[in-house]
Amino acid sequence: TTVTAAKFIARKQWFVVGHHDGFIRVYTYESPVKQVKRFKAHAWSWTITTLDVHPTEPYLLSVGSQDQIKLWDWNKDWECIRTFDPHGVAYQIKFNPKDTHKFAVASLMDAQVWNIRSSRHEFTLSGHGSIVDCFDFFTRGNQLYMITGSWDKTAKIWDCQRRTCVQTLEGHTDCITCVCSHPDLPILLTGSNDETVRLWNATTFKLEGVLDFELGKVTAIVCLKGSKRVAIGHDAGLVITEIRHGKPAPSNR
Predict the structure, then answer these.
(1) Which is one Pfam family of this protein (predicted)?
(2) Domain CATH for 129
(3) What's the CA gap between 49 and 151, in Å, rounded?
(4) Residue at 142 is within a domain
(5) In total, how many domains does the chain have?
(6) 252 pLDDT exceeds 60?
(7) CB-neighbour burial class of residue 22 (10 A; exposed 0-12, middle 13-18, buried 19+)
(8) Alpha-carbon distance values, 179 to 102, 154, 227 (Å)
(9) CA 6, 96, 120 angle in degrees (round to 5)?
(10) In 108-206, at which residue ranges do the beta strands (DSSP E only) sit?
């Protein structure tokens, strides 16, 4: 069936795959590839929309379309040890890098923060005018921030401690589909259905450049730690480019 989400679990040398039929499959990535586990994670016909792996504990988070968020423990033969009921459809989930007992969810018109120890919803970041479909964490000094992207064509910067919006990033002319904080450079990237990627300074939140490769809508952005290279997925192709921080970013628009 159609693969809808995938993650590496490096410390186990596995990769885990979510499918359109609600199943999760776990494979070794050493050759030859072998299936380790296959199990029904979400109700029949509910597409698994997103996955995330806990950085230290044996946990996997999964989300089914219009279904609960579930926490799985692979040391307990992939037992579901907790469930969470987001307030609306969950588009993306990610563990908090500074407090890994918490995770965030992009859902409808907000971002929610939950605690895996209690299944408790802790707080909500609200302010977008339409669906919030993507987010990422980043730090300035020792302070944790979040960037969210929305169908309202804006990205917002949130102070996670104060739980407030500190900046709105404007300029895209269509829905924002993906956001990414570069792991090494003070750069935030936003991708959009307007076919561009915008680069923002993660300290000043000023626009540093625009990338347009004329390959259609932007669907994904991935940054590699230890490298200035960025992979950008479009409707009509994949681009690998290098960010030149401190210089104007290339643009053909």
Answers:
(1) WD40
(2) 2.130.10.10
(3) 18
(4) yes
(5) 1
(6) no
(7) buried
(8) 20, 11, 18
(9) 100
(10) 110-115, 120-126, 132-140, 143-150, 155-159, 164-169, 176-181, 187-192, 197-201
pLDDT digits (tens, 9 = 90+) for 48-79: 999 999 999 999 999 987 778 999 999 999 99
Q: Across the beta sheet with 110-115, what order do the strands follow? A: 90-95, 102-107, 110-115, 120-126
Token pair, residue 237, equals 């192709």
Domain assignment present for residue 20? The answer is no
User: Which residue carries 């949130």 as its tokens?
Assistant: 158
Q: Which domain holds residue 110?
A: 53-242
Contact 41, 64 (CB under 8 A): yes
Amino acid at 150: S
**Is residue 18, in this structure, part of any structural domain at all?**
no
CB 107 within 8 Å of CB 92 = no
Q: Are 140 and 202 in contact (CB under 8 A)?
A: yes
SS3 call for 1: coil
* pLDDT-based confidence at residue 201 (cuts at 50, 70, 90): very high
Q: How many residues does the chain have?
A: 253
User: Is residue 34, in this structure, part of any structural domain at all?
Assistant: no
